[in-house]
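Incident review: delayed structure delivery

Summary: a single-chain prediction request sat in the queue longer than the usual turnaround. Root cause was a stuck worker, restarted by the on-call engineer. No data loss occurred. The affected request and its eventual output are reproduced below so the record is complete for anyone auditing the incident later.

Affected input:
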Amino acid sequence: MPPLFVINYFLSKEGLFVRFRYSVEKTKKSKRPVKKAVVYTQTEHGIARTDVDEEAVCIVERLSLAGYETYIVGGAVRDLILGKKPKDFDIVSAASPNQIKKLFRMARIIGNRFRLVHVSMREKTFEVATFRSIREGLTGNAFGTIEEDVLRRDFSINALFYDPCEQLVVDYVGGMEDIKRKQIRPLISLKTIFVDDPVRMIRAVKYGAITGFSLPSNLRLKIQQQSKLLSNVSHSRLTEEIFKIIRSSSAGKIVESLEEFGLYQYLQPNASAWLKENMEFRKKYFQTLSSLNQELAAPGENLGGLVKDFLEFVVDWEGEPLETYKQAFAQARRFVTPMNPPRVELERAVKTICRSHGLLVKRTLFTDRTGGTSLQINEGID
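Output delivered after worker restart:
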């Protein structure tokens, strides 16, 4: 760790040695150490090193050896502590984007306001961010320190920093204790957390669903009071959140929780209305979403999970093949509004559903009103 910080040992009431991280802060008269974080060893946090992506470790190691404090952060750390193997590993570092890019041959800087680096290693891409400052507020884009960066994070269980080289977890906000208590605790004041970013309501409910943790009553009440703020969120951001949900391994649980909190109507208003009005659809819809498995999913299958059961109700699968496909595609596109998925992905999803009814889908000169790739439908299975 950088020389600015030291680790001390303290014998707790339970007879355990606890490691603290201190920051040396200057006053008018002197410099004094201030306790900032608890540091957990592998024995205490229990993360299995074999569950950590080797390429992610290589990135952390290279940046650390170059003198830049670097960690795996966020949901990956939470999942590792819970004994789950994460799909994505986000990395945060004291290095600037230019400094990061210089250390990796396959790296490119992205973003306009706040720049990130995508580092590619062995056909995988990892997002590496620089610590962000709070000097410009929680929505600012200036670079900062780890102590500032942690204060920008939304919930304590997502604000843990993991050093895979030393196998240490650095906890500034009591996230480890919240994991033990199985609770979702916001780090930002309830007065501003959802006003600043309404999408945090979706995340809070999602984290509760995938972990089985509870949301405190004051957090639940605030979500109920401010849910209408989601109506002002851009369609592109809502689309991004929906894709994250259906590409997870807990889509059914997440959607059911969002519907319970009254939030799903802002993501999928048509589906939400059907869930309230049609109990048969409701049962099948949650079953379909619960059956999705990102690792085993065929192309288009996860997006198809959002429209499959609706199309079973409204499409005449015994009709003329080309007209059947055109009807299914148009109905699916309207049903997922305001979500606006890439046309090729929705096309693939509807194709998969058509094939389950014995309709073969091939490319030809058919184009719907929006333009784009054309399709031909033939009977049979290819």
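Verification: The chain has three domains: 43-181, 183-296, 298-382.
Action items: add queue-age alerting; document worker restart procedure.
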